[in-house]
TrEMBL record:
Protein keywords: Membrane, Peroxisome
Keyword Membrane listed: yes
Source organism: Aphanomyces astaci (Crayfish plague agent)
Protein name per the record: Uncharacterized protein
Lineage, broadest ranks: Eukaryota, Sar, Stramenopiles, Oomycota, Saprolegniomycetes
GO BP annotation list: peroxisome fission
């Protein structure tokens, strides 16, 4: 990243400005914390205060991701309407695959929330 803090902030905001990209960032952070907690437990041969804390943070990040997924349905509908998930130079086969992905996500988001309600 560049040296100026403003440039860094612009890049971060630009990357996390869509639901899918923001979900990828929070998923990576959450999985990273969970992985680090497990490494600490393996190294110490027991659960430690730090590993428990990192696991708790990872769990809270996982719950927070449910909130951002509420907007995912609207992003999928927008993608179907405008074709925003495919490029203008993509071939017809790729456009078909991406359209199938959009439909699968339209099914996935509601089912995920239903499973969350059953989990809680």
């Amino acid at each position: 990243m560049s040296g100026r803090p403003d440039d860094t902030l612009v890049k971060i905001v630009g990357y996390t400005s869509s639901t899918i990209k923001a979900d990828k960032v929070s998923k990576s952070i959450g999985y990273g914390f969970a992985f680090l907690a497990r490494v600490i437990e393996l190294y110490a041969n027991k659960s430690t205060r730090h590993s428990q804390g990192l696991s708790a943070v990872a769990g809270q990040i996982a719950y927070a991701r449910y909130v951002t997924r509420f907007t995912g349905v609207f992003e999928c509908l927008e993608a179907l309407k405008n074709g925003s998930w495919v490029g203008t130079d993509d071939n017809d086969h790729l456009k078909c695959v991406v359209t199938l992905q959009v439909y699968s996500m339209l099914l996935y988001y509601p089912l995920e929330h239903a499973s969350f309600v059953g989990f809680v």
